[in-house]
Amino acid sequence: MNNKLSVTNLSVKYENYKNYILEDVNFDLAGNEVVSIIGESGCGKTTLAKAIAGLLPASAIKNGEILIDGTDVLSLKKSDLSKVRGKKIGLTFQDSFASLNPTLKIWSQMKYVLKEKYKQENYKFIYNKACSVLKLVGLIDCHRILQSYPAELSGGTNQKINFALSIIQEPDVLILDEPTSSLDILSQEEILKIIQYLCSYKKMTIIFITHNILLAARISDKIIIMRNGHNIESCSRNSFNTFDFKNEYAISLYNDALLHRNNNSKNTSPITKLIEFSNVSKTFSGKKVINNTSFAIARGESFGLIGRTGSGKSTICKLICGIYKADCGTIKIDNKTRIEMVFQNPNSSINPYRSIQDSLNENCIISKSKRYSESFLLEYIKSFGLPEDTLHKIPSQLSGGQKQKIAIIRALLNQPDIIIFDEPTSSLDVTSQKNILNIIKEIQTKYLLTYIFISHNPNVIEYMCDRHVVVGH
Amino acid sequence: MKNKLPIILILIVIITLFIASFAIPFFFENNIYEQNAALKYAKPSELYILGNDYLGRDMFVRICYAIRNSFIIVICSIPISMLFGIIYGAYAGYSSVTVEKIMTSIMNIFESTPEFLLAILIMVVISGLDIKFFDGGIFGIIATVIILSWVKIARIIKNETKKIANNDYVLYSELKNARFGHIFIFHILPGIRRIAITTTAQKISSVIFLEAFLSYIGIGIQPPNPSLGIMIYEGAKYIRTYPHLLLFPAATLFIVILLFNILGELLKFENKIENL
After folding, report:
1. Which of A166, A301, B155, B198 could form a disulfide with B267 if both were Cys (CB 3.0 to 4.6 A apart)?
2. With an 8 Å Cβ cutoff, are B172 and A354 in contact?
């Protein structure tokens, strides 16, 4: 009974699915430690988190047991579960927009949880507590944030708010499902510090789910590696304060990540200017998002935009595409320049109700020209290493990486001059990230493209771009 | 589809009812209006399986004809109001803030007026116009239903459209200077298809009820043209002496509305499963 949390022979299968999502997962947590669960997308990390928090749908088939302080979560009734959640188990979901109510201000959402925690109705007391929690997660501008709706804040800010909401209750076991995936590197550091603080001072047990093995190696006492629903390795910190992985897959995952970080950048100078920004400013509801920014992009180069979340990287893209108009300053773009865009979230960049073939043909439909023939599209599909029947599938049958490839193909079909990549890899795991980045690099030389690459990850920018500017303050 | 069987069963029942309600009055056309003093208030018999009413008319054929009237109203009104509601809602959900505000206020005006009060008002105005496309007030009810029922679907579609319009794939089409027509057909329509079908199925039962209500208070379908509402009103007078005059039309109304409600609920449940 020394274990805070122990998972024994856990198998989970969703209804109508042939295969088990999780199969025979076993691990024990001693309590008061940070444990990371690592794996590719689709290996069952989120399902494991949901199982521990008792959030699996009732129709799911589950075997084995999950003991938290001796109570089996899987056999608890719905009414008993709600007593356990929040106080004993806290959970932060990966999709920060989906887990906040879009119709309520942040203040209204935090108020409820704080009142529950402190059993207090005093407005000032609750408001101060809300501010202090937000400041703890690194949101200094707390008065503005409390009066905003989730849609008015950036993705990273929303993720931090989610994190703040889950630590208010100070649960014994806190599960963080990719809490840093849409944060810039500085905010990531802040979150890691808070995790360490929570573990050592508040005596919480923290389960940190991520696909970033380097991040995990820095803060965890123990790393669990998952693949295809099995936990293939569970490794504790050795006496040298590092990890000795035994499994081959784990070692290659770790080395991939290291290699990725150490790649060097190269340098070229601009020749013909394709896009020129001079002293551009843009204001949204009183807040200056872009202030006096100037830069030029030459044909054939890869240009990086780097900055913290909410620093206005996406706004610059939309200015280039002409979706927004600048308040002052000039943007010079040749009218004949064809601009294409690859978005951050592969789930929302392709219509989920249309077949891949339809989505790829969308441009022809808009311009009322002849559709691409199937064999023509198949060539592209094959050259990107996608299965041949992809054309007739719908997006939900593809993985995140495959969808991102489709988005790149869609951009390429238009024979563009510039492709804007808005964080194309941030929601993918390390292996697919590397794969996608290499493909992007390859096609640049093949089709003579100019890239604008937006990211909060300096490693990716360094790997991909010839030059970069830092956006924001 | 998980609930395929129940949905198909309900659809079979509804289609059978539909065919019967058109076929039976067609073969027994004389029985609809024919009065027979000898058979006044007659109880169900072999020849007249649901008995005869206070003028000796065949209850069974009249009930079938009344259901036929209900179906005609549904068929003529629902597609028009749903089509208008979907396009209106999608346009409101996709347009800029100002246009959306104006379009939403128009919907608010319709929604804030009590439905039955507005229905009575429209019926009175239309009956004053003296238009005769269909016999005995059916046209008035069709017009009323069209005017009243587009608002609900427009509001649902507006909210769904706003969700869809937030996605990057719509942004991508906008980058390509796509017009509303393309975005509506290519992106919005597939996304709202399910919810539109569900809402329509749920709306049908309320249309049938509205028709019965208007006929009951005397401003809907005009006698001698049969309607479930009129038959219930007439039957209620004889509830102590001849209860079957009330029982059969009331039970029929109950069953028809129940069928469409179950269909709506099944489809709604289906959507919930798909969205999980």
Report:
1. B198
2. no
